[in-house]
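Appendix B, Record 12. Input sequence as logged:
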Amino acid sequence: MKMTEPCKLCPRACGVSRAEGEKGACGESAVIRLARAALHFWEEPCISGTKGSGAVFFSGCQLRCVYCQNQPIAHGSVGKEISFSRLVDIFFELRDKGANNINLVTPDHFIPQIAEAIDEAKKNGFSLPFVYNTGSYVTVEALRMLDGRIDIYLPDLKYLDEVHAGEYSGAPDYPGVAKAALQEMYRQVGAVQFTQVPGEEEPMLRRGMVVRHLLLPGALADAKRIVAYLYDTYGDDIYISLMSQYTPGEAVAGHPVLHRRVRRKDYDALVDEALQLGIENAFIQEGGAADESFIPAFDYEGV
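Logged structural output:
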């Protein structure tokens, strides 16, 4: 599956020739770059389990979130170029380390290469589930390249507020784009399915969608709209993951709103809203989550 030329994988449709070495709005050419490939223990319990998720962190990102939690790889220069065959080998190496699944993190701008790598791995007997971990700013046409290849979608729904989307991520069209992307993901994988995995006490997610929302300071009203939209649209066919771990970095130190962490009372109000709506399939974070480090060292481990 060749790189689409000119590139229109994301809604920015920058149209560059990445195969010829030009870098797109994502900051990447067609050459795969990774920052880390290792067991990751901080995803939702049904994805990480106790053995860990085999997280493959791709460099670059088409969103430009001013508060980005993975800024060194999304906006920076951290990343090591690898070959297509090396990506396939990494899948098997993570499997041999005991990973419950292969977790593709910020992968949208490498969809054609990933689809081909999954096909190659499966042709050689690979059977672990593939998790697609995305910010959801991706076209439906690009996602269709993954149909039949991805088992679990782990997308964000960052905003329904176009003003926030424009100011914080440079993408005022994000709400419409993300809703369409989620609908395509759900079409591909359907309702959540769990299975018992050797070595894990609790059933693990085998197929389906977990939609994440990271509560931002001053954005409680939009967060409530997001929760209501997800439940109205998908009911209990999906899980919703409500995250309180927002950690402001140096880039937003002077921002009038994003400079602070989320108030616990705001997060509790969001959880209460979910309960009042009748949502049962949800993950919530305990107090102090923002004090923990969910961000690994991007030191090229496993690359």
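Residues 101 and 129 are 5 Å apart (CA to CA).
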